[in-house]
Amino acid sequence: MQGTWLGGLVDNVILGINASRARSGGARAHLIGILNDGNPIQYGFREVHVWSHAALLEALPDKSWLVKHAPSELEGSISKQVWWERFSFSKELREMDCSVLLNVDAGTVSRFRPAVTMSRDMLSYEAGEIERFGFSKARVRLVLLRYMQNMSLKEAVGAIFLSRYASNVIQKSCGKLKRITFIPHGIGADFKNTYVKHPWPENGSRPIQCLYVSNVAPYKHQWHVVRAIAILRSKGFDLQLAMTGGGSAGSASKAQEILDAEIKASDPERVFTCQLGFVPQQALPQILASADLFVFASSCENMPNTLMEAMAVGLPIACSNRGPMPEVLQDGGVYFDPENATAIAEAIKKIITNSELRSAIAARAKQLSGQYSWTRCANETFAFLSESAQTTRR
Q1: What is the mean pLDDT of the chain?
Q2: Mean pLDDT across the stretch 223-231?
C-alpha cells in the first residue's frame, strides 16, 4: 500500500469508488456532486479511481486527480455485472494500489477491504412496504437485497447514512454498526437559484397549480393525491395537479394502473390532472418554479431528493409524515398521512386558505434547504473516508 499517515492523517494515498450500481438518479447526482464540488487532495488522497458504466462516467467532471474506469462487463447483463464485481473488481483495485474503497450503494457484492459503504435503499427495510409488492419477483428481489446490504454494511469499516431515520431503521435489521456517520445529499445551485415565477393566485384569478415530482410506485401514493384534489375541487377550490414520472414494468406498471383507475374515476375528462411522464433533471427547476404548491406523498424514502429541491425553490409544501420527511422538512411544511386522501386534502386546504402560514412555511423550507450543499457533502464524505483509511491502518 502506497502513502503514509502523517500526524494522524492519511497522505498521498489512493481512493477507489465503486459506482457499478449507481443507476438511480440519487446515486448519480451524489457522485457528480461530490466530484464536482469536492477536493479529495485536501484530505490526503493523491488519486480517485471510479469504476462505473460509460454513461455515468461521461457525466463526471474531468479532474487531474480523477481516473475513470469503464469495464465492458458493466455494459452487459446483470449476471455479468455481478460476476465482475465479485471476482474481478478486487484484483483491479489492488493493481491500482487503492487504500480504501467507497461503495456508493450497499447492494455491492465486492469483497475488497477496507471499504466504506453508503446506504441508499429503504424499501427492503421499511415495515409494511414489501407487502405492497405481493408475491412477486420484485418482493423476492427486495428480500435478497436486504440480505446483501446487511452483509455489506456489517463488513465495512464504516457506513454512511443519508438520514438519522434511515440509520435507526436499518440498524434494527443489520445490527449496531461500529462506525457510522450521517451525510445527507446536497442540492444543486440550479434549484437554489430558481424562484417561483408567479404570485399566488388571489381571488380565483387562475387555478392553483399543484405539483408532485416522483416516479409512479406502490409507495408513492399518487392516486391518493388525485383523490384529495378531487375532494377539494368538489368544495369549490380551483386546483390543478401535474405529476412527473411514470410506471413501465412490474410493480411500477401496477401502480400506474391504480393511478389510471383513480384518474378515470375522479377526473374522467382530464380537467385537472396531467401526468408529464419522465422529465430530465435539468428541466425540473423550471417545472418547480411554475408551480404554486408542492405535494410529496411518499411513505418510504432514504433521502427525499425531490422534496429537498422543492424546498430550495421556495414552494409551500404539503408533505407525508412518514420516514425521514419530518427530519428533512422540519417545521417547513404541513404534514399528512399519505394513505389518507382526506388527510391530504386537509393539509392542502390549510396552505391555500391561510396566507400567513403559506408564506411562513415556504420561507422556512427555503431557509432549511441552505444546509444541503454538495460542497459540504463532499467535504464530509472525503473526511470520513480519510478517517476510515487511518483507522484501518492503525
Answers
A1: 91
A2: 98
Element (H or E) spanning 17, and its range?
A: strand 13-18
Query: Residue 143 is placed in which grid cell?
Result: 428480500
| pLDDT of 136 strictly over 80 | no
Amino acid 172 reads: K
Whole-number Å distance between alpha carbons of 4 and 12: 7
Task: Look up cell 400567513; give the residue.
Answer: 356
Contact call for residues 290 and 209 (beta carbons, < 8 A): yes
Which helix (H) or strand (E) covers residue 234, if one does? Answer: helix 222-234
CB 102 within 8 A of CB 27: no
Angle at 295 between CA 293 and CA 301, to 5 degrees: 145
Candidates 4, 394, 25, 11; CA nearest to 213 is: 25
Task: Give the Cβ contact number of residue 112 at 10 Å.
Answer: 19
Which three cell numbers, joined as nine digits, stand for 324?
A: 425521514
178-223 confidence digits (pLDDT tens): 899 999 999 999 999 999 988 999 888 899 999 999 999 999 999 9
Rounded-to-integer distance, Cα 28 and Cα 30, Å: 5
Closest CA to 327 of 346, 351, 311: 311
pLDDT of 331 reads 97
pLDDT at 22: 83
Q: Which residue shows C-alpha cell 479532474? A: 63
Element (H, E) at 181: strand 180-182
Residues in Cβ contact with 260 at an 8 Å cutoff, skipping those fewer than 6 apart: none
> Which residues, 6 or more positions from 122, have their beta carbon under 8 angstroms from its beta carbon?
129, 166, 169, 170, 300, 301, 302, 323
